[in-house]
Amino acid sequence: xxxxxxxxxxxxxxxxxxxxxxxxxxxxxxxxxxxxxxxxxxxxxxxxxxxxxxxxxxxxxxxxxxxxxxxxxxxxxxxxxxxxxxxxxxxxxxxxxx
Length: 98
Hints:
Helices cover 79% and strands 0% of the residues. The chain has one domain (15-97). The protein has helices at residues 17-42, 46-73, 75-97. By secondary structure, it is mainly alpha-helical. It contains 3 helices and no strands. The chain starts with 16 loop residues before the first helix and ends with a helix.
């Protein structure tokens, strides 16, 4: 993503703006995690690797913060997140039984 909002904010309704900007924040943090972990994997310098991985961990905390706020603002998202968790658990249980 690299610091560009991926849609036109003018087209977002007033009631949805908070949810959308929180999702953009999530996208940005996930993008940063991927970037820092990829850079850590590329370096041969252990100190540089450690710093990139530490920063990636901090970005994961930011994901948690944005997700917490999003779930407060969007009940449907909260319900669907729980539904997704249940589906994964069911699939994993089925695999264990086979």
